[in-house]
Amino acid sequence: MRNELMRLKDAIKKSNNIVFFGGAGVSTESGIPDFRSADGLYNIKYAYPPETILSHSFFMQHTSEFYKFYREKLLHPDARPNKAHLALAELERRGKLKAVVTQNVDGLHFLAGNTNVLELHGSCHRNYCMDCDKSYSLDHIIGSFDVPLCECRGLVKPDVVLFEEALDARIMDRAVQAIRKAEVLIVGGTSLNVYPAAGLVQRYNGDMLVLINKTETTFDKYANIVIRDSIGETLGKAVDTIVP
Ligand code: ZN
User: Fold this and answer.
1) 122 strand-pairing partners
2) C-alpha of residue 25 to centroid of ligand 1, in Å
3) Cα 34 to the chain's mean position, in Å?
4) How far is the C-alpha of 187 from the C-alpha of 202, rounded, in Å?
5) Between 3.40.50.1220, 3.20.20.140, 3.40.50.2300, 3.40.640.10, what CATH number should domain 1-32+81-121+166-244 receive?
6) Domain ranges in the chain?
7) Which helix H or strand E contains 80, and what residues bound it?
8) Which of 18, 110, 163, 228 counts the highest number of beta carbons within 10 A?
9) Is 125 an active-site residue?
């Protein structure tokens, strides 16, 4: 493991074209649980599985129940960037990191200071009226009772990609381009089982694929460096000691 960390440091030191691709594991270290994690509470408290509640049709048909789950399970307004977010922001400041591609909707990469963040599944910080398209902040969702409405009385929807909805093709295209052209691709906090993660990693053409995840992933055998550890601890150590 120690040796792998040295190799990661070396890869970061040598490259000015690094791309990071992250999943839910990046945010769990900020105290945001993966909504898929089976804590058993769903069965007791909610009549439907999370994938059903977080679907477009459920949002349209049971908007109040959607928002109850959404506020409780997906919104974590007090969460702060962890060591992984901060290390990636530092790499961007040093001109080494070209893009962050994320499956998370919490906005923590922006909060940490990264500017080129490609949010594949949207962001809970952006919300819009389904009738007049007016934008609303996260505060509007948190501050409103039950179903958030626009001043035009239209329904306000989070700009988050729900199940049954398509990913934003422009964001997806930018993510593919960034990964395709990357010299070093660091993948963290994802088992690469959830669409479109595996397909994106397959677009990488380089020879320095780094996988950092606490458990085995389906891509371990293709990676140049595999580190089975905390993403925050690993990136924190890998970035700190490099002379800018
Ligand atoms: Zn409106």
Assistant:
1) 160
2) 35
3) 11
4) 12
5) 3.40.50.1220
6) 1-32+81-121+166-244
7) none
8) 18
9) no
